[in-house]
Amino acid sequence: MSEPILQTTGLTKEFRGFVAVNGVDLSVDSGTIHALIGPNGAGKTTCFNLLTKFLPPTRGTIRFKGRDITGLKPADVARLGLVRSFQISAVFAHLTALQNVRVALQRERGGSFDFWRSDTVLDRYNGRALDLLDQVGLHEFADVPAGQLAYGRKRALEIATTLALDPEMLLLDEPTAGMAHADVDRIVALVSRIRQGRTILMVEHNLSVVEGLCDRITVLTRGRVLAEGDYATVSRNPDVIAAYLGSEAGDAAHA
Hints:
Elements: E1 4-15, E2 18-29, E3 33-37, H1 44-51, E4 59-64, E5 67-68, H2 74-79, E6 82-84, H3 97-105, H4 119-122, H5 126-135, H6 151-163, E7 169-173, H7 181-194, E8 199-203, H8 207-213, E9 216-221, E10 224-229, H9 231-235, H10 238-253
Parallel strand pairs: 3-8, 3-9, 6-7, 7-8
Antiparallel strand pairs: 1-2, 1-4, 4-5, 9-10
Helix pairs in contact: 3-5, 3-6, 5-6, 6-7
């Protein structure tokens, strides 16, 4: 049985009287892929923002690898190995795929990103950057400006830049949102490849993706945990079917 790498206790976020996340107890085991699902407005992205310190909690605690990180800043959490992607793809459109990954790799130089230096100064990052592009299936697109990549490949590039930070735990916010079927399949295969030696927590609306990838699922509704378990358990829960999955998913679960 895996040990929890990330735990929350009573995690709560209020916005002027509106409770977006309400007393969430979450436990993510090391080495697993864990999904956070729920209808729109359930509090999933707010929960992500709390975990990665882009929002301060109103109440509750967050522990990563046994350490209380509740009061830390986003950059401090990232340095500990807890790194996130965003629902909207965030890449430098006018830089090539290789240059995007190289910028992420430059974090080891601290605050000095050396944009003004000649390329030869930064060539030592190219080998690792190409390796990361290869991991996400973008090796042949290394010299293509990111703005010219298809949407699914931009998301893959974003994952490559997060991997450049060498995360022990990766949080993926809607990694397949807005994708065509072929791109979804590509991202599913990518997440399967990069899970080795990592823990992944993902928000995902596509239930076929969740079913095929995730070891454990937490269902949120109205900011609270409604159910938790593997896909078979969650998909047969009447409360989950009523709140989120709907009759079609319920029929599929019993097929």
